[in-house]
Design a protein that fits this description.
By secondary structure, the protein is mainly beta. It is built from four helices and 15 strands.
Length: about 325
């Protein structure tokens, strides 16, 4: 399919709120483009958009950007909200985002104060707890044209080349340890006497998208993000999958507050060059990963005596991976 243009867009934010609470957010279209014909490109991949040697798009007569009249909506219900009192496709007026290309970049914004005005990002002024937002779902209705000839074959060839192991196309998988592994999360926050805060996960290919789950995956990067109450540096030991010392710190990721991630604690480690690479293979027994976390200054995680919440509210494990050569 090509010439895909938007007819309508709506947004759903699954979250926990009271019966009369406004879920106010702004959905904004930042840029868009649409493929208007099925001609060939100038590069080796005749399907893809023409780019320079750094991967930035060049002028390409097959793609145009539509300047549409309505580029943002204010949503209030968070339930399939189109920003209109009533969505009618027979309306003679343009609907929000109508005519824009599906190839697009969006932003979604909830109420937030600037850190310069308020270190807590205006949290006391929020109408509901943003931590209860479990997802953001964009419903897009669009029209398209079909070409079942050479254009379809070039599109399939492009996809196969994109996911070819030799091109090392990176993919990512984000795990919310609290949401996806609630039993392990409870044991992590409530260890036995004398034990540390250890999170155990049986890492297996079943946790990855079907396209990747049947291939041998090589982990190249590990990121950790955490929602912590203390502003200090937390230490996280991953062993396995990271190798034990020496060298010192080879299995440790220190996470510190990051303004880039809205105040979340953040740390990362590049593991692409490990002598013993981190491999996740299908049809094999899961590998048990151990994540041990200590608070600033050492010791186990503690409970806030006022709120009675643990000082770590959530922990996100993000894996950057690729298909190992010989997969697919």
């Amino acid at each position: 399919h090509y010439f895909r243009r938007i007819k309508s867009v709506s947004i759903t934010l699954p979250c926990v709120v009271g019966p009369y609470t406004t879920i106010a957010c702004t959905l904004r279209l930042l840029k868009n483009s649409v493929r208007i014909n099925t001609g060939n490109g100038s590069g080796d991949d005749t399907y893809a958009r023409n780019t320079d040697e750094t991967g930035l798009p060049l002028d390409d007569a097959r793609f145009v950007e539509n300047n549409i009249p309505v580029k943002a909506i204010a949503a209030s219900s968070g339930q399939n909200d189109s920003g209109l009192f009533e969505l009618q496709f027979r309306d003679e007026r343009y609907l929000p985002f109508e005519g824009a290309g599906i190839i697009s970049l969006w932003s979604l914004e909830l109420f937030n104060d600037l850190p310069s005005n308020n270190p807590d990002f205006g949290k006391p002024l929020r109408q509901f707890d943003y931590n209860t937002v479990s997802d953001a779902i964009l419903h897009v209705k669009y029209t398209a044209r079909e070409d079942a000839g050479g254009f379809k074959n070039r599109a399939i060839t492009h996809l196969r080349r994109y996911f070819d192991a030799e091109t090392t196309t990176p993919s990512m998988r984000l795990f919310s340890l609290r949401e996806e592994f609630p039993a392990q999360w409870h044991r992590f926050l409530n260890p036995a006497d004398g034990a540390g805060n250890v999170f155990e996960i049986d890492m297996a290919s079943r946790f990855f998208p079907l396209r990747d789950a049947n291939n041998i995956l090589k982990v190249n990067s590990i990121w950790l993000l955490a929602r912590c109450m203390d502003g200090g540096s937390y230490s996280v030991v991953l062993n396995p999958p990271l190798p034990a010392p020496p060298p010192a710190g080879s299995h440790t990721i220190n996470i510190v507050p990051s303004t880039q991630y809205g105040g979340l604690h953040y740390g990362s480690k590049n593991v692409a060059a490990l002598a013993d690479p981190i491999i996740i293979a299908p049809h094999t027994d899961p590998s048990t990963w151990h994540l041990t976390m200590t608070r600033p200054g050492g010791g186990n995680l503690q409970e806030n005596p006022i709120t009675e919440w643990m000082e770590v509210e959530d922990l996100y494990l993000v894996l950057g991976y690729e298909w190992e050569e010989g997969s697919g």
